[in-house]
């Protein structure tokens, strides 16, 4: 499936099992790395981006909605809040990236 499939699998599994401390993001990353089949480096990238994808999506939604509802100031506030959420997700993204590295090494690939 490539990178896109691995990122999607990681993101969806983080929604389902991401609440489990440490183990949840790692398992989601392993599954994403296996689906991507791009080796250890590609698996890490897949898990890391999948871990940040929710924050990126939230930032886009908040920026657009803020801009529609309150103009430029609303868009700026939406972007700042979304960016803060991305910062909070970095730990989860690193754990998912480690899991992706493991999954990518298991699956092999390029």
Automatic annotation (TrEMBL):
Q: Which organism is it from?
A: Thermosphaera chiliense
Q: Identify this protein by name.
A: DUF5518 domain-containing protein
Q: Could you list this entry's UniProt keywords, alphabetically sorted.
A: Membrane, Transmembrane, Transmembrane helix
Q: Which domain of life is it from?
A: Archaea
Transmembrane parts of this sequence: 6-36, 48-70, 76-107
| Keyword Transmembrane helix included in the entry's annotation | yes
